[in-house]
Amino acid sequence: MASPSSALHKSNGVQSGRIRVLKEGSRPFNQGGGPVVYWMFRDQRLKDNWALIHAVDQANKANVPVAVAFNLFDQFLGAKARQLGFMLRGLRQLHRDLQESLQIPIFLFQGEAAETIPNFLRECRASLLVTDFSPLREIRRCKEEICKRVSDSVSVHEVDAHNVVPIWVASEKLEYSARTIRGKINKLLPEYLIDFPPLQCPEREWPATNQFIDWDSLIADVLRKGAEVPEIEWCDPGENAAMEVLMGSKDGFLTKRLKSYSVDRNNPLKPRGLSGLSPYLHFGQISAQRCALEARSVQKLCPQAVDAFLEELIVRRELADNFCFYQPHYDSLQGAWEWARKTLMGHASDKREHIYTREQLEKAQTADLLWNASQLEMVHYGKMHGFMRMYWAKKILEWTNGPQEALEISIYLNDKYEIDGRDPNGYVGCMWSVCGVHDQGWQERPIFGKIRYMNHAGCKRKFDVDGYIAYVKRLVGETKKRKAEHLLAKTAKKLPS
């Protein structure tokens, strides 16, 4: 049974509660003489990374070398060029930074991690595997399989470097709502929302290898295979770009845009009112803890905005991880609360004014111009405004044959087009909209039952609907124009001079 380790050293600043021992090796790894391998997947960064700090610290204590392993899942959960291109470009920068600053090698594998990681551990005779934490089923199953396949002498440590308060420390159960988890998290922030210790240099170098990663070919390959959903241009990948979005002198969120956050973040016509950090948080190119520490340092300047930001960054994000960690059916009707399942099934056969297929919805072919605009924003821009995501998913419930189909379609579209898709926040966002997760029962009505209702008139009261439709139209037009120019330039390059 995995449990937080109280026996692990705390000298490097990694609290024992942040680490779970998934497998205890048959001999203390510091007596085995084998290296430490950090299997990185959710937290793809050099700085402010508790898992990397722990891996290097444990390697130095045992006087052994340390390496990073990364397994490239082929189109993981429907990821296309948009998501994989962003991720690989960030990893290319990370590879360079790790080599230049710490001389830590990265080994990149393709295939099933349940095979590639144990094989690598065997080849290099590793004594300790350190892994990132993820609440998603596929990753958890993979870890279980890895623990079975590695040698009895290998220990496996899981580090929650993604959440400010480790998920298993914040709560030992599925929480009902933000209200029930907020106090638990806030109580633990003095212990866990601390600054990061300096990342030590490995004392032992990894034996020289001819390890070469052809990033250009890898990126070209995923761009070709996933061309159906092309890359986005508004968001540069990598740790440096992430810090620029958070703290940049030109347009940084905390330095230039924070003041209007609490007012503008729910207005789809003001995308600059949002932090713009979600792609970086999703791929772990920036630490949520770093964002929180920097936000706290300017709290006196904009207390209301910082409070609203920390609520989203810590409480709401970690509530989503809590749901996916403790609810195995986090993406199906089975995962809804009983009252919600009952009311949804009771209204599943209610007459709908419109029924649309998945293809019609994907192509934004509905009678609702506002909904079409939100879908097009996601398809072409890679990011739908958070307020519109709620309206968008609730309309899918209204326009499909039942709640399970609505949920499947909303998750499929979200994961395919959102730059931060395949994320606990995305699953919980769809579950909140369709199944009332982390919400309460409202006045009963057709189709929705007691699930919170949203409509076009309500949107009109909150923001300029016609202005948003026109804004998306311009956005899509500009994106298509740039794409056409890019294709033209590419064709011209191929023509003989």
TrEMBL record:
GO terms under biological process: photoreactive repair; UV protection
PROSITE patterns in UniProt: DNA_PHOTOLYASES_2_1, DNA_PHOTOLYASES_2_2, PHR_CRY_ALPHA_BETA
Cofactor: FAD
TM stretches of this protein: none
Gene Ontology molecular function: any one: deoxyribodipyrimidine photo-lyase activity
Keyword tags: DNA damage, DNA repair, DNA-binding, FAD, Flavoprotein, Lyase
Pfam families according to UniProt: DNA_photolyase (PF00875)
Span of domain Photolyase/cryptochrome alpha/beta: 34-167
EC identifiers of the protein: 4.1.99.3
The protein's enzyme class: lyase
InterPro entries attached to this UniProt entry: Crypto/Photolyase_FAD-like_sf (IPR036134), Crypto/Photolyase_N_sf (IPR036155), DNA_photolyase_2 (IPR008148), DNA_photolyase_2_CS (IPR032673), DNA_photolyase_N (IPR006050), Photolyase_Class-2 (IPR052219), Rossmann-like_a/b/a_fold (IPR014729)
UniProt superkingdom: Eukaryota
Reactions this protein catalyses: cyclobutadipyrimidine (in DNA) = 2 pyrimidine residues (in DNA)
Family: Belongs to the DNA photolyase class-2 family.
Functional note: Involved in repair of UV radiation-induced DNA damage. Catalyzes the light-dependent monomerization (300-600 nm) of cyclobutylpyrimidine dimers (CPDs), which are formed between adjacent bases on the same DNA strand upon exposure to ultraviolet radiation. Required for plant survival in the presence of UV-B light. Not involved in the repair of (6-4) photoproducts.
Protein name: Deoxyribodipyrimidine photo-lyase
Native source organism of the sequence: Liquidambar formosana
Taxonomic lineage of the native organism: Eukaryota, Viridiplantae, Streptophyta, Embryophyta, Tracheophyta
